Amino acid sequence: MKKLLFIESNTTGTGMLALIKARELGFTPVLLTNNPGRYIGLGETKCIVLECDTNNLNCIRTIIDSEFEVGEIKAITTTSEFYIEVVAILAKELGLIGNPIDTVKKCRNKAEMRLLLKGIENIYEPWFYIIDSLEKLELAKDNIKFPCVVKPVDDSGSNNVLKCYSYEEVKRHTEKILSNKYNVRSQKNAQNILVEEYVSGQEYSVEIFTYNGKCKIVGVTQKIVDGAPYFIECGHIFPAPVSDDIRSVIERGVTKIIEKVNWQNGPCHLEIKIKGEKIFLVEFNGRLAGGMIPELIKYATGIDLLKEQLKVVTRMRPKLDQNPTLYAGIRFIIPLRDGKITSIFGVNDIENTVGIKEVKLRTIVGESIRKVENAYGRIGHIIGAAENINKLNYILDKSMDALHIEIEECEDYEDFN
Questions:
Q1: Of 136, 145, 160, 370, most Cβ neighbours within 10 A?
Q2: How does strand 327-333 pair with strand 214-226?
């Protein structure tokens, strides 16, 4: 049986599902990882696990050469933002389907994307500065308008993305980002910062697939973002309730971006806002959307985006034409303060609610938690589906109200263990 290699995975649960779906498609899933313990549920996937330094390309090459015969590998992929560039390099070296290396490098760098999209029709251009030192920030000081957004160019999950209202805040956050030498996967950070215009308005995620250069917009997801000055995704709704005019603006702008970026194969998702008759690109992500959006699309349309991703990399044409028959939504469970969990109740009642598809908690009584500043701190979610958006929101609101998590304030940092 041909092998389907995964270089690491995301940690929300869809990554483990992808391993299972690889076997359903007739392939043997193989996960290359530097830390198998990172992935809850890995054992249940029954995939082959090879441990190596996945942040060292030569180590990956060595284990591939030693463990597999020529032609045994059908495809290489990942569900993690941090490894799409490694996948592109290996796919090219092994003659497998993928995206151009230069394309993926640009997609992993938010500053490079800003530069690439200058002067493109239908795309709103924000003012921005690329900063790699406090000295360079000082030179841009008089031209920075407020509020603005300060973020690292190569992180994920809205990590270290901050809305700033003064130069002092910008400087303080710049110092913080520059002091972080490595990301959550122990990869060296680019040490570049994007200081850019804050654009207000409703945020959307546009889910896209390409196959041999042909682009298909699967749909548009409405995002619920809160937690200022941070940008915390609190929930999503698919399909987004947008007018035909807004949908046309989105389709025109997104198509231009995909063409300019030269995205050739597989999924990507664009986080955007609408600015007049143009779209403002918040971020381009060269992978499936996180935040369980693929699961929402599955509940709403029947399309299994994880399986379709695997079909693309194994040279099978994806099937993406099913229209939504339901609205699906997710609400994330977000700690609003630091503390230790003393009780959790209401889960069983929520699970038995008509329209609720999934309730998941990634915490237990006695565990210490932090107030959320990014996607990594969310401690669970509730997914529901209904025939109209009002009913969906009612079900999700009612379920969130029924969930009770009591948090006892910790006296000092040492209580967090």
A1: 160
A2: unpaired
